[in-house]
């Protein structure tokens, strides 16, 4: 857990309540956190290279979560991704895991599930 | 008659004048006592030659010639011939009267007269059976008194044919200038023998004449007949109704009527020059058949009519029927009739073609036909119908055989149809099933039409179509449609659920995350109360967001338009029955409706109320699908209730249910059906309740259940219904 402290976690979600609540909780975990309202906004920021874990919504206007995943792979910026989705369609999970995602959480998810996913992401960058 | 007449006159005469005994008037012995003259053979021979010549030349006058010969040879005063007759006219060996066919001399005027048998000397001569000489016989035979001059002496000689006495010849002396002697006796006996021969000859001639005249008469009749027949035959030949030909066995046609010539396109000139030969007219493949006919002709003189073909002059062929006979005599010539069969053959071909069309049409369309004489029970089937029923073609069709094929559940339908058909003659149609020997089911659709045959008897002409394929595809289609509807419903429900879930998951996710953050902030040392307060505030906001989403959803669902109008439930019911009739008929359900004539209209949503009726009909129908062995009857009834209410009841004969289930029937998602959602009755009840009505179920006395709803028709129903809509 220590290894992840002060690491940057970026949250990309078009829903405001998620952008407000989720970074606050992650901050309580002891990580640094930034929130973006769209995939395009995240790509345009200076934080892409610094981000140690990306919490990414699946369905968004414009570029979707999986679109962003493919773009990062194309750019060889392989940031561990934890997808968070409001859909009940569970077929999305195997697809994104196959593309290299660490985890796919279905909203609403528990605090434990979120922590497990974050630690798994950090372990990936350490390795 | 003559005899009785004669007896009367006899009595009269005998009564008036006493008659002398035979001995007193006979003097026969004197013939040999008197001196006899010498025979004059020359005269005698001349007389006999004259007689024989007369017999040959003029048989009809032979008796008169004989009488004159007697007169001539015996030198007497009168001479003649008496013949016994039966009726007084015709010569007859067993006669009862004497007739005088020939008299010469003084008594010549009496020629043609005569006496009853015993009223003259002839009778006594025949009785005595010998030659007798009388003197003044009128003393014994007063019948002869008027015959003058009186007879001084009379010599009578009997003559015979085949031993039977037939008459006498006689000579009379009216004075005593000369007496009969032995020579007269000899000559008279000789002439008596001639008389016998002449009599026989004459009789034969008479017989011959009769025979000849009869023969002539017969020949005349034959000639007459032949003339008539010839006229008839000529009429037949010239009428040209059939072809008539005269022919010989060498192959020639010697004569023919116009009908025949027209048939083969030849003319009279062709015929006259011998250019029309039956051997040339006959195509090669018919030669064998001709040989057969000729063999028959030679054996029996005729040949039975048979069909063959002739070449026409232009080389085309004409089908004919031919029959004929040999003429008697030559054994080589004959006559034949020839009938042109072109028209019949064309008609036969047309008939065969249309029969083939019909059979093929029936086969392709899977339609069979039959006719049924109701009175005689005679049933005629088309071949296709045999195939549909899988009966051997030609098997006699009986109602019993048909019953054995019909599906047991459709037998009552069949019997009803038969009864119906026997009763009133109307057209009708019905559907029923067959169970085939391999256990498969066939669906048939029959349409019957009544006609009257020539005798005015009732006959049904019906078509039966095998609609199994259509039926199965309809069922498959229905099933597919039902599945599709279900899938669509599930799908749209799934999509809806997903979008609702997605909408709600966002704020829920926020709420949970905030709550977790809040707990962590409070658990920190020191507790971050301000942060927790802020976080709790966000939690409340997200909760409100979730509530807003739900409100929006409800608004979305309550957008259903509801209209209120005056509803005639009878009309609404009739519409529903009409719309459902296909499905009901497919499930073999007999629908009866009893719609009250005095039913008032109610105020409400017509579509929603029809939805209730549809649901009740569907429930009833589905409850009876598994019913076997009893009729599937559905009764829908509307009636006016007390308190200004209207009631609709749907009664089935289905499986029913137990009393415990009754309470749960109207709960949503409660169902006794395998594939039901269980919301039909629940929705129905809420619709009825929106109309301030009541929906309930009752178990029948017999099998099945009755569902009923009752709705007030009061003027405030409208507002009640409307407000009920708004509340929901």
Shape of chain A: globular
Number of helices of chain A: 5
Quaternary structure of the protein: heterodimer
Q: How much strand of chain B?
A: 15-25%
Strand content of chain A: 15-25%
Helices and strands of chain B: which structural class? alpha+beta
The helix content of chain B, as a percent range, equals: 40-55%
From the N-terminal CA to the C-terminal CA of chain A, the straight-line distance is 14 Å
Strand order of the largest sheet of chain B: 3-2-1-6-5-4
Rg estimate of chain B, integer Å = 65 Å
Mean pLDDT of chain A: 88
Can you characterise this structure?
The complex is a heterodimer of chains A (127) and B (728). A five-stranded parallel beta sheet of chain A has the order 2-1-3-4-5, with helices on both faces. Chain A has 127 residues and is an alpha/beta fold. The mean pLDDT of chain A is 88. Chain A has helices at residues 16-29, 39-44, 65-74, 92-98, 111-126; strands at 8-12, 32-36, 51-57, 81-85, 103-106. Chain A is globular and about 30 Å long. Chain B has 728 residues and is of the alpha+beta class. Chain B is built from 22 helices and 23 strands. Chain B has a six-stranded antiparallel beta sheet, with helices on both faces. A five-stranded antiparallel beta sheet of chain B has the order 8-7-11-10-9. The longest helix of chain B is centred in the first third of the chain and has 58 residues, at 182-239. Chain B is rod-shaped and about 225 Å long. The termini of chain B are far apart. The model of chain B is unreliable at 1-16, 668-678 and 715-728 (pLDDT under 50). Classes of the chains: A alpha/beta (127), B alpha+beta (728).
């Amino acid at each position: 857990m220590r290894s992840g402290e002060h690491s940057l976690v970026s949250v990309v979600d078009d829903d405001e309540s998620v952008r407000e609540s989720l970074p606050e909780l992650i901050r309580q975990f002891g990580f640094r956190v930034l929130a973006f309202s769209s995939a395009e906004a995240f790509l345009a920021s200076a934080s892409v290279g610094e981000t140690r874990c990306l919490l990414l919504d699946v369905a968004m206007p414009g570029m979707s979560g999986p679109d962003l995943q493919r773009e990062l792979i194309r750019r060889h910026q392989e940031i561990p991704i934890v997808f968070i989705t409001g859909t009940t369609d569970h077929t999305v999970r195997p697809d994104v895991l196959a593309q290299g995602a660490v985890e796919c959480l279905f909203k609403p998810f528990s605090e434990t599930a979120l922590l497990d996913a974050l630690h798994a992401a950090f372990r990936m960058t350490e390795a | 008659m003559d005899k009785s007449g004669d007896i009367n006159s006899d009595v009269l005469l005998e009564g008036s004048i006493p008659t002398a005994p035979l001995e007193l008037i006979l003097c026969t012995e004197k013939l040999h006592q008197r001196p006899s003259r010498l025979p004059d053979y020359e005269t005698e021979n001349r007389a006999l030659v004259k007689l024989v010549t007369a017999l040959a030349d003029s048989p009809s006058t032979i008796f008169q010639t004989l009488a004159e010969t007697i007169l001539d040879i015996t030198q007497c005063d009168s001479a003649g011939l008496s013949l016994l007759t039966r009726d007084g006219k015709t010569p007859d060996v067993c006669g009862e009267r004497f007739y005088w066919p020939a008299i010469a001399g003084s008594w010549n005027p009496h020629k043609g007269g005569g006496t009853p048998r015993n009223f003259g000397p002839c009778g006594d001569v025949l009785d005595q059976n010998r030659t007798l000489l009388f003197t003044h016989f009128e003393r014994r035979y007063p019948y002869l008194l008027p015959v003058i001059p009186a007879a001084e002496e009379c010599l009578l000689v009997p003559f015979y044919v085949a031993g039977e006495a037939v008459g006498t010849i006689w000579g009379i002396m009216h004075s005593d200038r000369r007496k009969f002697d032995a020579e007269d006796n000899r000559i008279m006996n000789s002439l008596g023998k001639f008389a016998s021969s002449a009599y026989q000859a004459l009789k034969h001639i008479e017989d011959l004449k009769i025979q000849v005249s009869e023969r002539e008469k017969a020949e005349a009749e034959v000639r007459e007949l032949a003339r008539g027949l010839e006229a008839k035959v000529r009429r037949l030949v010239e009428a040209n109704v059939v072809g008539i030909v005269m022919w010989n066995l060498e192959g020639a046609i010697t004569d023919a009527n116009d009908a025949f010539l027209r048939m083969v396109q030849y003319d009279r000139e062709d015929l006259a020059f011998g250019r029309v030969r039956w051997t040339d007219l006959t195509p090669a493949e018919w030669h064998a058949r001709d040989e057969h006919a000729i063999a028959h002709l030679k054996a029996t003189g005729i040949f039975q009519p048979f069909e063959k073909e002739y070449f026409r002059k232009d080389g085309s062929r004409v089908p004919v029927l031919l029959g004929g006979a040999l003429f008697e005599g030559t054994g080589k010539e004959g006559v034949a009739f020839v009938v042109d069969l072109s028209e019949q053959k064309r008609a036969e071909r047309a008939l065969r073609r249309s029969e083939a069309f019909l059979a093929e049409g029936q086969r392709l369309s899977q339609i069979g036909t039959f006719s049924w004489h109701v009175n005689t029970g005679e049933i005629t089937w088309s071949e296709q119908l045999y195939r549909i029923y899988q009966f051997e073609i030609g098997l006699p069709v009986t109602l019993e055989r048909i019953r054995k094929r019909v599906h047991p559940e459709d037998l009552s339908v069949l019997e009803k149809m038969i009864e119906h058909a026997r009763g009133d003659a109307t057209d009708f149609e019905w559907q029923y099933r067959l169970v085939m020997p391999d256990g498969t089911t066939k669906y048939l659709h029959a349409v019957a039409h009544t006609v009257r045959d020539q005798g005015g008897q009732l006959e049904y002409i019906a078509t039966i179509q095998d609609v199994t394929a259509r039926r199965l595809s309809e069922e498959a289609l229905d099933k597919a449609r039902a599945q599709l509807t279900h899938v669509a419903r599930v799908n749209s429900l799934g999509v809806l659920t997903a979008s609702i879930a997605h909408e709600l998951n966002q704020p829920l996710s926020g709420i949970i995350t905030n709550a977790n953050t809040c707990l962590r902030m409070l658990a920190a040392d020191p507790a971050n109360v301000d942060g927790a307060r802020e976080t709790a505030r966000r939690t409340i906001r997200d909760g409100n967001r979730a509530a807003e989403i739900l409100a929006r959803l409800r608004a979305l669902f309550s957008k259903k338009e509801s209209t209120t109008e005056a509803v005639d439930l009878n009309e609404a019911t009739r519409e529903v029955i009409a719309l459902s009739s296909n499905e009901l008929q497919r499930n073999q359900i007999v629908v009866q409706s009893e719609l009250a004539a005095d039913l008032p209209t109610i105020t409400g949503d017509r579509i929603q109320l029809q939805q209730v009726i549809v649901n009740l009909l569907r429930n009833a129908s589905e409850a009876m699908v598994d019913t076997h062995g009893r009729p599937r009857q559905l009764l829908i009834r509307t009636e006016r209730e007390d308190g200004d209410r209207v009631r609709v009841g749907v009664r089935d004969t289905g499986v029913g249910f137990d009393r415990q289930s009754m309470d749960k029937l109207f709960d949503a998602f409660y169902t006794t059906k395998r594939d039901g959602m269980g919301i039909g009755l629940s929705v129905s009840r809420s619709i009825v309740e929106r109309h301030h009505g009541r929906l309930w179920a009752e178990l029948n006395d017999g099998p099945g259940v009755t569902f009923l709803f009752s709705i007030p028709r009061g003027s405030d129903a409208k507002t009640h219904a409307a407000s009920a809509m708004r509340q929901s």
